[in-house]
Each structure stands twice: as structure tokens, then as C-alpha cells.
Records
---
Amino acid sequence: MGRILYITIAFACLMFFCGTSASAQHEKVVYAVAQVQSGEVDKAKSAIDSAVTDPVTSVDYETWYLKGYIYKELYRKYDASSRGLGYRNEAIAALKKSIQLDTAKQNLDVNRQNLRSIAGTFYNDAVSFMDTTNHAKAVQYYKLFKETMLLGDPQFNFEKRDIEFKLALATQYTKLYDTDRKRNESFFALTKDLYSEILKLDPNNVRANYNMGLLFYNQAVNIINEMDYDVDIFTLSNTQDNTIVLFKQSLPYMEKAYELDPGRKETLIGLSGIYFSLNEEEKYKFFQNKIQEEKK
Amino acid sequence: MKNFLKKFVILLVLPLMSATTATPPSDTNAKVKSSYIMAFTKNIEWPGTYKEGSFVIGVLGSSGLVDELNRMAATKKVGLQNIEVKTFSSPTAVSKCHLLYVAPEMSNTLKDVLGKIKGQSTLLVTERTGMTKQGAAINFVVQDNKLKFELNKNNAQKYNLAVGSSLLPFAILVD
């Protein structure tokens, strides 16, 4: 940061606090600003921690804003790689306090900008945690993203992000389910719930329709593939009944995906597989022909 | 102070990746048919002379069922007998089988097949409407999306095959 800027800010701060009867207390704030300017965030932290406990400066929204900013910088310095929460939580609390004290909304925009910036870090962390091991953390951080983003932008429309997040999470749940279908049986229902939630938000979401259809289809195929050849005839008949229900559950979602994007190869393959498994030869052939046409 | 701090406000957004993969294409119908065939072998009694050597399942015509039957043969037995899968391209090529599955496209050769297996104890399994009327003991049919089977007990008895009672509740009985 340039020296001219540093002087400008220090001067601005001094001017801000000039004329008050407690200039000694305000010196801590000015000092903290100067330390931030010099990249000395640890020294800035000591100064601002002291300022927020001072009866004079603790009632000033600028003090809390500065604390929020300094703690955000501390997060960047110490917590960013470990995705820790401590500094960010402190920063959010300080920025909220600043908004609360700033009754004239003088600093509202920058307070919110900083909150949005912190929200962005939570979102990025949620993305980086999105795998089969850390999916719970991804959920936790996405929740933090939403909470913080609402503070930074009360009108923020989460729909697109929610859909993306749920699709990504459903992918991880599906992977877990496929890894060990008996031990991870609960992930089937969780995945189904996620796709249902997405389709409530966006009934015309091609991927969610396709994936939901595929979820039921794969479930049926897996049941048949895992069936022992010398299963007794009673169980064989029941297994057929159960899988027919699943194939039929799969169908409307896959049909919807086809309606929304008739040229999508995966959907055509999915539909041909469903109709084949339902012994509907004509429809199976229809989609097989479509697949061949798409190849040309 | 506001302008200076604004400089640091950057909202980063990384893309979330999502992809769901299909279970590898699978002939589920062949698996179900193979399991039915296995059930037939357990619920139908062959004459004693047929209980030695391999239990031969013949397939007349080309069918996705062959691969599935071979997988079954690799791990299962009929009683103490190993399962051997034989494929035939025409009725004249058909040799001694315990069970002969006639693929739908070969149904029009049924008369020749019946001539070929005459005097043997071969369970004839087909997959086309009306085949039990023409001599097949068992015929796969689809009803309400479900693979079922017609059973003509008389046609089985003609080949000295005794149908167990446990098969009957699941069969569509045909005279």
C-alpha cells in the first residue's frame, strides 16, 4: 500500500476523530489503521481489541467496522489455508455491531461489502469441502455462506446457488451410496430428497430430472444385478415387482428430461434402458433409433 | 477509510462440479430370465439318466441370454452337476440338452426343434406367443411389464419331465 494512501487514510481518520473530547482513546483506532496500512495486522489487532473495550470508542460504528476489517485480514493471514472459522466469526460479529451502531447508515455499504466478501470465502470453502469425506463440512460452510450473505445482501437470490450446491452434494451422496449400498443406504434417501428440493425450486432442471430418473433406474438395476441366480422363485417374483416399481418411478423424470432436452444422449440411453427393463419393446426401439440418429 | 478498504472486498466464487453416472448398461431381463431358468432346474425333475455329467443348457439362436447363462454356469450347479452352456445356430445343430431355450427369432423353427429333441428329456423353453400350444413346455411372456412364464405340464410330461408343485403358483398354466 502506497505511502500517500497511508497518509490520506491516517489523515482522514484523524479528521474524523478531531474535535472529540477523547482523542487519547481515538489514538488506538488511528494506530490500528496505520498498522493495517503497514501490513502489521497483529499490531492492528492489539490496538483494535483495546479500542472496542474502551467506553468511548466502543460505541463508534467506525471502530467496529475497523475491527471487522482487521479480523478479516487476520483470517486471510492465518485461517484461509486451514479454512478456520475463528477470525471470520469475530469479523462478522464486529461488522454486525458496526451496522447496529450506524443508525444513520453512513457505513452500511462497506460493512455489507465486507460481509459479502466473507460470505464468498465460506462459499469457496464449501466448494473445497465438497467430496465424499467432507460433505458435512461443505453443508456447514454453505449454511454459513447463506447466513453471512444475507447480512451482506438481504435481497440476495440464493436459488441458482442452492441448485448448484444441492446438485453437487447429491453427486457426493450418490458416490457414497454406490461405494457401499448396504452400509450407506441412508444416502439414497438423502439424494432423493435433494433432487426433490431442486425440482421444487426448478421443475425444469434437466440435470435434476435426469439424475432423479437415473437414481431410481440404477437402484433397480443394482437390485437385479446383486440378485443371486439361484434365488427361490418367490423372491425372484417379488424382486421383479419391486424393480418394476423403481423403473416406473424413474420414467417420469427421465421423460421430463427428454422433453426439456430431446437431443441429450444420456437421457436417450436412460430411456431406452428403462423401457427395455420394463419389457416395452417398441419404446425401447424408438429410443435406440434416436440414439443412432444422434450418432450420425 | 471506506475507499481504502473497498479495495480488499473481493467475492470469490468457485464452480461446484456435479455429475452422476449411470450404472453400466446391463441386460437386466437376461439376468431375470437366467434366474427363472435356474428356478426351473430346481423345480423340475429329470430322469435319473440325466443326472450324470454336465447339466446342458442349449440356446438356439443369438441371444443376450448366452453371456448371462455363462456367468451363471461359472458359479452355480444343478444339484451336483456343473452347468454347461451350448449355443446352436440351427435346429439341425441341436444336440442333447437338459434344457433348450429357443430365441424369439428362431421360433418359426419350432417344428424342426421338436423333431430333433424327440425321445429325449429336454425342457423346451421359448419366448413367443402361442409356443406352448405348439409344443413348448415353458414360454416366457410379458404381462404388465413383468416377465412371467406359461407352463404346459402336458408338454413337459411328454419328455418325461416332472413339474414340481412349487412352480405352479407362479406359472400361467396352459393346456
Note: Residues 1-11 of chain A have pLDDT under 50 and may be disordered.
---
Amino acid sequence: MKAAVRDNSGRYALYAAMLAAAVAYPFIFRKPFPQDLAIKVFLFGGLASAWNVLGGFTGQVSLGNAIFFGVGAYATAVVQIHWGWTPWAGMVLGMGTACGIALVIGYPCFRLKGHYFAMATLAIGEVISTLFMNWQWAGGAVGMYIPIRDDTWKYFQFGTTKFPYYYVTLAFLVLSLLVSEGILRSRMGYYFRAIREDQDAARSLGVSARGYKLSAIGISSMLTSLGGGLYAQYVLFIDPPSVFPMMLSIQVVLLAVLGGGGTLWGPVLGTVILIPLSEFTRIYIGGTGTGLDLIAYGFLIVLVSVVQPRGILGFFRKGGSA
Amino acid sequence: MSLLSISGVAKRFGGLLANDDISFEVGEGEIIGLIGPNGAGKTTLFSCIAGYFPVTAGTIAFEGRRISGLPPEAICRRGIARTFQIVRVFKEMSVLENVMVGAFLSTSSRGEAEAHARAVLGRVGLSGKAESFARSLTVSEQKRVQLARALATRPRLLLLDEVMAGLTPQEITEAVSLVRTFREDGLTMIVVEHVMEAVMPISDRVVVLDYGKKIAEGAPGEIVRDERVIEAYLGVKHRASH
Amino acid sequence: MFLPELAQSLLSGVLMGLIFALVAVGLTLIWGIMDVVNFAHGDFLMSGMYISFWMYSLWGVDPLLSLPVSGILLFFLGVVVYQLIIRRILGAPMLIQIFATFGLMILMRYVAFYFFTPNYRTIQHTFLSGSIDLGGIYLPVPQMAAAAGAFLTTGAVYVLIHRTRVGGALQATAEDREAAALMGIDTDRMFTLAWGIGAATAGIAGSLLSAFFYIFPEVGGIFGLIAFVAVTLGGFGNVAGAFVAGILIGIIEALAGHFYDPALKTVFVYALFLGVLFFRPQGLLGVK
């Protein structure tokens, strides 16, 4: 059985077409709802791709990526509220902080195998969420409102139009994909995948497992926190339940795995399918209060695990059964 | 000066002394056969040399510098590569990608790594399978992938752990001549084997372990006549074919 | 003097700890025999709680009487979960195993959410009620009954594992699956049994709890987490270890609530969990 053969010219044409379509979209669909939907798709797609670097490529299943999302969101909010900086500066600060936290978490946690790593990230996520609930300087349980200003790029706020948010989140998704693609083509990508497949065998070939795993979580955390910052600016209100919840971590993982973890386009595919589905479910079947969408999530997760662990892309990738 | 120097190495797991005061030297360009009954401690010794276990006592030195205590990746960078007894290929990666992981040790360029990997695959006769997923290969093909992968790191010393097990007689003959070509390229090897027909003809010297201790060392012809060795194998007599 | 309050906290901790122990025993059974982490274990407990609640609300059945019903229903649920889901992911990569039970957890929790609403429920009048006054220390009878029930059930499981043939077969499968199969033990049946017993114990714990604890869809979360910590502390697959660890956690949690802020009790448990994972992954009593 052969691995998929690459044909570059066809692929690049396809990418160009997709990008053109994405750029044209908001001119065709001018209502807020489709644009908001697309923004959500781009944001989650970028987050799922970011998780994929750590979880899909390197095989370290983190169930706590919301930590970095929240850190990015809070950094962006805090620098504006307490120091009057621009949100962009906050996002940069957020990325640095998230990376630092990622390394601190990764160092001890990467010694743990499989299940235990996942559980540790869950536990740490919950601890951080609780800490932020009690941290008054960062708003505590009440949360923080980002002060509303006039529409400007400097403060990245636009009350009258969604266009800037659309293009910035699109850029975020493109960035995540470019980073993922760049990793996959490089030595780092090969080493990541080797670690995923068999860490000890990788080490016997000179791969420093700890170093590369830390790189993976560092990259993943920075991208994720950037997404958090963008979210904060779009919604202009954050509190621990909205940016740190376990469900967010799980959701991101589900999107990546549903589409096909470990591949470049898997996370995007999963997002494109699941986010519109959950939005429509929410609107037509009724409110977030019922938990129906979560029932669907749970069911889907079990289904994917049992029927096609490789995700949707697994149906298309040549290579046969597991 | 010997390439690899093992002095008084001991490895203890709880109450079990898997390696007990083992010492021998490996000269450059030599092929050392490491044999002994099951459970004698051969793979444990390999794991100690390759850095997977810290030694309980003794030292291991490579090219005059101490390596006991270094992690596996550092030992690989010093020039020692190994294969595993139970084949451990990267299943979800193609054969070529598997070998490239080894090739990347000496370069960060994908083009160079790919070229080097293809060359190594050519040497072990797997060029035709370069694009196949590793998990779709037979066990003996996977062993060759493992071998190619280790070779791609351009080692000076290669530790081969039971590469011949499960091979047909013809495959064994091919493997033996392949190993001989490696030696011609200046590669030093320690070969752990149960298949006597494979190990005896290619080894310059043979080290015999039993219950964690070294019980004999010498030329293959001497070893097969050594009484202690024959006893260790429970009376099974082996004669080298010539 | 605050000594009676401290003693009160300690005692409550032990009583709760016995329930934690029961939940942990079920989890360690599953974990030990097949190395699968059941993220949905807390929701088995939640199911047991709701079974008792509805039997009380609809037909006035006391939790003590609905306890066997809970146990039996959850046993079958465990079997079904194993046959439909777990059996198919036994050889799968780590991510998928985590995913499967995690998805099950979400599914169970939000089905409860949807059908029963998120409202906190309680069982108002139980057969055993009131409290015993022991020199300033109040021992609520429902909690004591629950603790006694947990103790007995744990004991029954222990006897099952260590003193019966079936238990021996379970242990053999846990220790070396292939060797057990070679000896003629039907490993599939052993796994099914483990899931059945594991779920049943969680369900029974739920029924015991329902007599005095709030009943709501997310209740499985905290008890599941505590079970994880207990299993990690006690050593995977170690029934006696899980028992001791459960009680220990009950005491630690009670003391944390007593000396610090009760709201931060959970953080303590999480921190303890992380501590064990990092510093003593083989558990206090475990050997691996």
C-alpha cells in the first residue's frame, strides 16, 4: 500500500481558489450571521490546528489547551484595562506568557505517559480556572469588560462592521495552517511524528524527546493564546467559564480528531463540519440551556472513537485498515 | 585504542542482577558476537550501552570518552546506533520517512535527508518499498527498515539485536553478506544472535553470557568447543560450519 | 476550644472517605484489569443517584431499598458499555481510548441534564434519619448508614476478588492477559464482568449518597476526579489501596475545608492528584 503521492501544482491551485473564495465570502454574504459563523469557523479552525501540533503530530493528548486560550484572552483584556495598552501588545504578551506556562507545565508532565499526561493537563486546566475565578485583579468570577472605543485598528475594535474581524481571524487560520505545514515539511515535523509513533525508538535515532515535546507545546500554546486574544477583542467580555472551561479544550480536540488528527487539513475539515452544525442546532433545536448540542458532541466523540478513529480524512487516506 | 570499552558493568533490577561484572573491549572494525541462553542479559547489556538504563556499577566508554549515564539520544549522537529485538518501526510513516528520521541526525535539510535515506534503502534492498506505509510490510522487511533507519544515522558502532530471528535460510544468507559489506565500510558491530549459523561465520570474536555473567570470550572456533559454553546451552552442541 | 469542630471535620471526612473508597474500588477494578481509564465512572455514580431519586419521588422507595436496583441496573449498563464501546477500542491508540470514555461521560451527563434539568434535587425523608450526639460531635445517621453500606460493599468486592474462583480469574487476567487466555480464561467475559462490577459499585455508591447529598447532573465530575486521585494514590488495580486512599482523601478534603476555604477544597484535591502523578506515580501502596 502506498502513501499518498504529492502533486504540487494541483494543490497550490486549489489553495489559491479556496483563499479567493474566503476573501470574497463577506462580500457575497453580507448579513451578520453568516459572517459571524465564518469567524467562529476560522477561530476554532486555528485553535484546532494549534492543538494538532501537540496532539496530532506529536501524539501528546492535551485536554487543557483552554489554559492557553484563556491566558491569551486575559492578557489582552488586562493590558487594556489596567495599563491602557493596545490589544495587539496584549496578544504578544499573552503569547509569551502562554509559552512560558506551557514550558512549565510540559517539563514535569511530559514525563507522564499517555492517559496520565491527559489527566494531568485536565487537572491543571481546572486549577488555573479556579485560580482565575478568585483573582480579583483579573476580574475574579465576575469577569472583565474591555472598554468600548471607537472603531480603530489600533485598538482592534469595530462596532459597526465585522469585516476586520473576518479577515483577521482568517489570517489567524492561515497562520496556523502555515505553521503546521512548515512543521510537517521540516525535520521538526519528522521528529514530532517519530515521537508520536515510538518515543524510545526515536531517542535511539538521536531525537531529544523532551526537547521536541517542549517545542510542540510551546508552538501550540502560542497559537492558541493568539486565538484567545482575538476572541477577547471580538466579544469584548471574558470570564473564567467562557475562556477556561474544560469543554472548550475538549471541543478543540474533537474538531481536530473528527476531521483527522495528525493531518494538515483534518482540523479544518472537522471545524467546517462541526461548528456550523452546532450553531444551527443551537438556533433551531433550542438554546444552549438544554444541553442538546452537548449530547450530540458526546455521541459524536464516542462514534468517532469506535467507528473511525482516523477521523473523516481517514476514509480518504490510502493506507488501509489500522 | 578500542572503540568501545565495557568495564565491570553491572545492572540490577530490584532483586535481579541482570548483568554482573561484565568486561570486554571492542576494537574498531571488529564484529563481536554476543551470545548466550535466553535471559542471559544480552539485551539488557545493549540497553545499558545505548543509554536506556543507567548502569548499577562499572563504566562504558566509547572512543575513549565515558558514555555510561548519558541519555539515548546523546549516545546516538556520539555514533552508536541500535536495532530493537521486537521490531519498532514508525507504523504510520512510510518506509522512506522512517529512514529519514535517522538521516536527519546529520542534516536539517529535507532534501539531503531524503537523498541519504534513499541511498541507505538501496543498500538494504528496500528501494521498491520506499513509499509504502511501514505497517504494511512483513516482519522481515520491517527489520530491514529498522536496520536502514539505524544506518542512516551514520554510526561508527552498530548494535544489532537478533536481526536474524524469524528469517528464512535464504534471508539469513542475504543478511550475512549484507553485514559483511557494512564491515567493509568500516562499521564496527556487536551482534546478539541465537542463530548460530549466522553469528559464527561473521564474528571475529564471540562473548558468551550466562545468568548475567561473562563466561567465555574468544574466536568462534574456540567458543564452540568451550565446555562451559556447551553446558550453558544445556548440552546442545553446535559446530561452526567451517 | 475548636477541638470538637476538628474532630467533627475529621469524622465527616472519614465517613465521606468511605464512599470515595467505594467509587475508587470500582474504578481501580476496571483500570487494573484492562488498563482503560474510565472517564465516565463518576457518571455511573450519578446514574445511581438519579435511580434512587426517581424511585423515591415516584414511588416513595427509600434509598436503602432502591440500592440493589441501582446496583443491578448499573451492572447491566456497565456490561452494555463494554460490549458496545470499550471492546472495540481495546487495541486503539491512547487518544481514542481517552476519547471514547470521555465522550461517554459527556453523553451521560448531558442526557441527564436534558431530561432531569440542572436543578439540584434532594431526598427529603429517609428511613434512617436524624443524628447521634456524641459529646458535642454530631454523627448524622444517613451519612453513617451510607458509610457503613460503602464499607460492606467494598468488603464484598474484596472478598469476591481475593477469595473466589471468579476473582482469581479476574486477577489473573489483570496480571497477564495472554497467560490467562492460554489457561482457558475467557478474557472477554472477565472484562465484561469487571465493567459490570465497576459500574455497579459506582451505582451503589450513588444510591448511598443520594440519602444526604445533592443530586444533579454534574455531580459525577467531582466524585469521578476523587476516584481518579484515589486510584492513583492507591496503585492501579489495587483494591485495598484504593480503599485506604479513598478514606485518606476524605480526611484531607475535610481538613482542607476546615482550615482553609471550603471553596478551595477541590483545588486541594487536584493539587494532590498532580503531586501523586509527578512524584509517586506508582501510588503510596503500589509497586509498579
Note: The mean pLDDT of chain A is 86.
